[in-house]
Structure prediction request, 225 residues.
Amino acid sequence: MTAKPAKVYTPREIDALGATLVRWLWISIGGSVLGLVVSGIELGLLNRVPGDQPLGLYGEIPGPETVTLITGLARLPILALIVVTGFLFLKWIYRASRNAHALAGPLRTSPPWAVGWFFVPVAFLWVPFTAFSETWRASHDPVGWRSTSVPPLLRWWWGFWLIENLTGQASFRLGMRADTVSALSAATWAEVLSYGFSIAGTLAAIVIVRRLTAAQTQRLREQTF
Prediction:
């Protein structure tokens, strides 16, 4: 029985996609800043109420009803930004992985799985980073990528992303179970942390996207396939 031949990927320049992604990453930072403002407004309202007061509807929290309504509605565009930016980022990762395969030959992780691992429980904590590190190394050193190290910036980015997700999950779960003002305040503080790490991780991602896009663009223009 013959072994299945490795799939050959056709390279495509990603400078336009990378530039679009960078713009959306900057916009998402603005969304995170908006989230911090919204969370601050909510904390200000909650601080006006005794911490052990049971929660009902927002009407039990003193303050203009219009303001409390805005804190909820303001999160909708933030969610939309997360969806759009996330889609573009995964599309860029897929395209970058394809190009890395074209530059360096078969890598351990295929382009579809470079994206797919983000949606696998537990494995999403480290496997996508391993796949992306292959793409990074193969893009900068197609011949000796296996022995090439990744810059600390990639590890910082991944660490920020993990903490952002963990604190975001904590905020969601605390908020769903909150039955007192103090419990809801804890959920909002976790949300503040999530936005803070989101900003830090997004700034790192902007640098990474620019560097990897530039490296692949240069390699693809120099190499003849």
